[in-house]
Amino acid sequence: MQRTALILAYLLICVNCFSQQYPFVHYTPRDGLISNMIKSVYQDSKGRLYFTSLHGLSVYDGSRFINYTSKNGLNYDIVNCIMEMGDDSIWIITNSSKINCLVNGKIKLLPYYEHGYVINNLCRDSDGEIYAAAEEGLLVFNKKDRFLKLPFINAKGVEVSSYISSIFSAGDHLLLQRDNSMLPVQDEILYLYNKKSKKITAELQGVLAAHIAKDGRIWISTENEILSIDTNELYKGSLITQQLPQKFSALRKLGKYFVHFDDGNNCWLGDQNNILIKASPEGTITTFTSASGLNMFFINSVFRDREGITWIATNNTGVSKLVHTNFSQIEKPFDITNPSDISYNKVSGNLLIYSRPANLAAVIHNDATRYLHIENQLPLLRLIETPNGFFGINRNTVYKLDQKDHKLYPRALLSDSSDNVYPDFIVDNAGNLIIPGKYHLSAIINGHIIFKTKVPFFGDVPAVDSKGNIWLATRANDLLMYQTHPEEPSHYLEQKHCFKKELEGFSPRSIVIDQQDNIWIGSRSHGIHVFSLTQGKLIKRFSITTGSGLSDDFTTHLMCDAENAIWATSALGLDKITIKNGTPVIENITRQNNIYQSVFNIVNDNDNNLWCLVSNGMIRITPENRPSNNYSPTLMISMLRTEKDTI
């Protein structure tokens, strides 16, 4: 019965209709980590990460692990928790009655803190007071170099003194639980302790796990469900449970799950076996399994650092790092094997995924998917949906695809000589198809009227600006701009500008127009060049190359999203480019997510989801609202080298 409930819960919370792999990076002792059995993760004010374990302490500076054990200073190898106490002064709480301090990379023993207590966890409240959950009970640090034991008596007048394991501060109260693995009888109780009266004011039976978020939410896990604590009643000294809000309704009936909030107010829940769930504050549910790329088994803690990177500490597989939980790789999206093309129709809101080997297309709208089979075994290079129906390209022929039921029947509509290639097409603002080629720029108007105009040489892909003008960069280094005339199909494309000398020397391959009508041109070997049109003149604004952070100087495709960020694809990956304070800022998206694949195409749907065609399936990037924390990592210099001298 329990197993059935878990399977039903998994089906309920799994919001995706396909298996997604997330870009986890795994660290084990082979990578320098101290142990595979990591208990918790802590970050100091300088950005360094501390991994506590059953076999010592690892300190990570972003590039390497420095390890500490009883062989080089620790008084005991089991490290329970970490707390920063001052400038470059870190307390290391081991599973003993002694406390170590890490100062300037050196381990010291603080003998005057020896008090006979074995501390499991520390908690610093909003007033700076430090409380400790110890095997001997509840402690407070009196700022005179001593921990003092506090009275911990329940409503029956019985001293609850042993094996306190977790502690959280909530206003004038502490929330505490005991380590039941150390007790002869399982006693799953959550205690509410008043700091001022030094009394237990409330108890809640049957609480397997509890955690408090930075935004004040308190969730608990019981045998059969996940509940929240009424914080208004808590501040009055009571523990009253209530149902999770409606946006988290899919989580309510999950029993025996651990509960853990990270610093981004995301709640992480897991069954310590098959499933890990992330619930964002907005209610977005993401499910991870071993098929998602996570080394799971037993998870001890989840930590989100100041750069928004998630670290998952496990009991026997080390640490897993997840840079972006909104970034996933899909080998078989919507059951399409070997996808070869993607496109998006902003009018209908349909995402189109096409597989040339299978001669099959999936049309996805919201949560509904329908499949269309291309008849006559015609292998298409590109497939697109327009307001006038489906169209496809097979080298030098453009086909109209007539739909009957679940089949598409190709009908040749536009052909050229054998030495011509139609590489791509776009839909303009009037819903008509614009197709570049070796000799002409063509338009298919209202689904059947053909218009052609000559071009100097081969153009790869056109772009549309905010006024509906068509721009084409040719391989002969021409930049052409055409005004469209939907009212006059016989003169549909009228050339208005031709720029040549401005593009000399960098063979264009891709183009996109951003929301300010800046013209971004990707080249074969000279990166990306950005221009603006001012009073009929083409003004160069930026040049972006591998020297400025671009993954590859050969940019195969460019796309502008709803937030005016530019996305550049290449054989070496995917880059996101934003303009901040007048300067291009480049993020190597695939590289930072541990993905090293060619990216061929990218589309942006109406919900600002990004869909990228890669050499092994697709990548999906969903919108992620990350509040700015103005955090700048500290630069730590470990070595200076000038010619033959090293410091």
Task: Write a structural description.
- The chain is mainly beta and 647 residues long.
- Helices cover 3% and strands 47% of the residues.
- The protein is built from three helices and 58 strands.
- An eight-stranded mixed beta sheet has the order 30-31-32-33-37-36-35-34, with no helix packed on it. A four-stranded antiparallel beta sheet has the order 1-28-27-26, with no helix packed on it. It has a four-stranded antiparallel beta sheet with strand order 2-3-4-5, with no helix packed on it.
- It is elongated and about 95 Å long.
- Residues 1-17 have low confidence and may be disordered.
What is this structure's SSE topology?
Blueprint: H1 2-13, E1 24-27, E2 38-43, E3 49-53, E4 56-60, E5 65-68, E6 79-86, E7 89-94, E8 99-103, E9 106-109, E10 119-124, E11 130-134, E12 137-141, E13 147-149, E14 164-170, E15 173-178, E16 189-194, E17 199-205, E18 209-212, E19 218-221, E20 226-229, H2 231-234, E21 241-242, E22 258-261, E23 267-270, E24 276-279, E25 285-288, E26 299-304, E27 310-314, E28 319-322, E29 327-330, E30 341-345, E31 350-355, E32 360-365, E33 368-374, E34 382-386, E35 389-394, E36 397-404, E37 407-415, E38 426-427, E39 433-436, E40 440-445, E41 449-454, E42 459-464, E43 470-474, E44 479-484, E45 493-499, E46 508-513, E47 519-523, E48 528-534, E49 537-544, E50 557-560, E51 566-570, E52 573-580, E53 583-588, H3 589-592, E54 599-604, E55 610-614, E56 617-621, E57 641-642, E58 645-646
